[in-house]
Amino acid sequence: MIWPKAVQDRVKIGGDREILRTYPYRSACPSTVWAELAAGAERELFLAGYTNYFFWTQVPHFSATLRRLAESGCRVRILLGDPDGEVTRQREVIEDVALSVSTRIRMTLGELDRLGHVDGMEARFSAAEDAVNHVSLSVFRFDEQALVTPHLARLVGHDSPLLHLRRHGDAGMFDRFAEHAEELWERSVPVQP
What we know:
alpha+beta, 8 helices, 8-stranded mixed sheet
């Protein structure tokens, strides 16, 4: 036996090696993690959360970060749920919170409007037929790292668990979640100013 059991129990060697950290709640992930991942993206920043509003409340100068990334050649994409869609209305009934899903989406849209047109940055709404898949899983990609939130039944995003992933190879967890987000993006429709 090359590796003692104590080492085998602590060293990630299988599919779980892509998992850097887990959090029982998205809100337990420090805002510094979100800020560092966003600021450090060079090629790809893809926010495929249903509302994405919390970036502007948790990440200092987030609009300036988005502008800087896009202007430096980073592809910046933001995928949102339709604030007027049926799935959004259903989710509002399920969550039953004062800061409704449509309000959170509109907060993001307001921030994007204030940001104005930025070459290299695009915002879209998920297609109506994909909304139920979009609302149940948020994928936030920063180059080869991602923060993923599988939404639990009646909980809002910040109360659902979060996985921090780093890509290590083809067809791993990172790729599977990234492909989910890409599939939603392919059928999405542009947000009109």
